[in-house]
Amino acid sequence: KKSSTNAKAAPEHNFSGHQEFFAIFLRAGDSYKFNFHLKHRLANILSEMMAVNETKGLCDHIAKTQMLAKFLGMISFSPNYDLADLISDRGEATYPPINIKECINAAWKQRRLVIVIPWVVQFLGMMKWYAH
Question: 92 in helix, strand or coil?
Answer without folding.
Answer: coil
